[in-house]
Amino acid sequence: MKVAVAGCCHGALDKLYETLELLQRRHGVRPDLLLCCGDFQAVRNEADLRCMAVPAKYRHMQSFYRYYSGEKKAPVLTVFIGGNHEASNHLQELPYGGWVAPNIYYLGYAGVVRFRGVRIGGISGIFKSHDYRKGHFECPPYNQQTIRSAYHVRNIEVFKLKQLKRPMDIFMSHDWPRSIYHYGNKKQLLKMKSFFRQEVESNTLGSPAASELLQHLKPSYWFSAHLHVKFAAFMQHQTNSKEELPKATKFLALDKCLPHRDFLQIIDVEHDPTAGDSLEYDAEWIAVLKATNSLINVTQSLWNMPENNGLHAKWDYSVTEEAIKEVLEELNHNLKIPCNFTLTAACYDPSKPQKNMEPVHTINPQTTEFCAQFGLTDINDRIQQVKEEGSVREYEEEEEEEEMDSTGSAEEPSEYNTDNSGLSSINPDEIMLDDEGGDEDLSTCSVDPSPDHPPEFSASFSDIRIMPDSMAVSSDDAMDSNNEELEKSGVCKQAEEKSLNERPLKRIGGNENGNTGIKKIKRRNQAIYAAEDEDKTE
After folding, report:
1. CA-CA-CA-CA torsion sign (497, 444, 19, 478)
2. Half-sphere exposure of residue 28: CA atoms within 13 angstroms, side-chain side
3. Which of 12, 143, 274, 333 is 20 to 30 A from 398 via CA?
4. Where is this chain's protein located in or outside the cell (predicted)?
């Protein structure tokens, strides 16, 4: 079957789907499946925009809300992972995955599904060592820290994926596996992106967690995005025994979704011709979720996964064939994922903008149903329980202080540190450009939903390539042929942004406080996103 793979979508769904339709009209190629490697931006309304970790000038509604409301429907089954520029409050509703719109499926923090017999896995977010060992504790309303930490990869998701034993066909991550650049045309990569050199030479570019998964899963294909450059590599894996057949992974990083950019790839993947056209659960993955359910943590405490070091009674959570069989029996051997998409938030109405809409912590019925079916912990429900219990404990402590004639006034209970003086207003992971140059033309980094300004797809279609049978590295396959000029690095000023108020969790609520700041950012991140203002639609 034909699989289309896209890099950072940045909410430009109309452009993406219209490009696929143009591909079919011109070349008779119709993909059976579309995979997106993060920065999907499933933004439903103004509250979702405020939960995206990007400067205010990049918070555009784009076109996803039309698919969420049902006004439009994705013409091809779309499966995506999260990146580091997402409506985190929306994706957080579906920690185990689920439908964000009809025919558009999110894989969750980590997930594995099947389509026509092809096994597809993925992990959302990017790696940051300071949050890696924490639990998933974040929830809206976010503060300056949690709006970013919400999309950071956690060790429990990597641990779950490492329990898998069965072969993986396709795997997706947003950031690259560390060291993968040594298996492709590194010289050409550094020629195009010279600011990668220091990190490449020190072997610090990319995610060590993703590299660990690459070594364990050994998928046939691995797709990534994040760095906004096309790069191909071929990695031959070492075998653990003489009996084990050699395995290799074809790696491909995709460029961002913009006109004149090589952001889309088509590959042919062997599939089961007898399988149906429905997206299906993966029985082994479900069994692993059940086996690791007791490890779920929703606190900020740093913790290590079980390992064979004499400190844990159990460290192997891989599942037996009997456990997989039990999952199949629970489902009556019907692995089809139910089409149970449900609206959980008001949809954006261009005629009635609501700039002051507040994000709320929502329990999604899809997650409730999934957890009830397989006996799993609803992470968002657990977060609410922990917060409510914490509020009760603090209230009781305050009552005791009052009984002791305490003269101090009680503070509003909060899980978060309310002192913002130590919080940076600029994050190296954010899109951050030099604001001194005046107003930028953002027409090339987004798709205006207005029908009065349709994108010129004919100009950009020549950049779509059909993946050859072999991903042998060459200057053409390893990199996008388009030349990019890098902006000079320097001090970037961040426009004044509104940050979400910190206060005890409620199902509905939240305020805003203003906050400003100036700080230097990493040259690599600045240069990556500088292209947002360089590309012009002709």
Report:
1. negative
2. 0
3. 143
4. Nucleus
260 and 535 Cβ atoms separated by less than 8 Å: yes
pLDDT at 502: 41
Mean pLDDT lowest for which of 96-110, 164-178, 410-424, 452-466?
410-424
Q: Report residue 44 as tokens.
A: 């439903």
Please, which contacts does 449-453 make with residues 24 or more away whose CB atoms are closer than 8 Å?
A: 449/14, 449/61, 449/62, 449/63, 449/66, 449/350
For residue 281, the surrounding DSSP H or E stretch is strand 279-281
Q: Which three-class secondary structure string do you get for 395-432?
A: HHHHHHHHHCCCCCCCCCCCCCCCCHHHCCCCCCCCCC
- In terms of Cβ atoms closer than 10 Å to its own Cβ (0-12, 13-18, 19+), residue 516 is exposed
Q: Give residue 259's pLDDT.
A: 63
Residue at token pair 């025919």 = 103
Q: Which two tokens stand for residue 240?
A: 């653990």
Distance CA 38, CA 156 (A): 20
Determine how many CB atoms are found less than 10 A away from the CB of residue 401.
Answer: 13
CA distance 522 to 531: 15
| CA quadruple 81, 36, 215, 522: dihedral, nearest 10 | -80
What does the pLDDT look like over 325-353, one tens digit per residue? 999 999 999 999 999 999 999 999 999 99
- Does residue 367 contact residue 93 with C-beta atoms inside 8 Å? yes
Backbone φ and ψ for 118, nearest 5 degrees, come out as -90, 130
pLDDT digit string, tens, across residues 116-132:
999 999 999 999 999 99
Q: Which residues are CB-neighbours of 516 under 8 A, at least 6 positions away?
A: 425, 494, 496, 497
- pLDDT bin (cut points 50, 70, 90) of residue 56 is confident
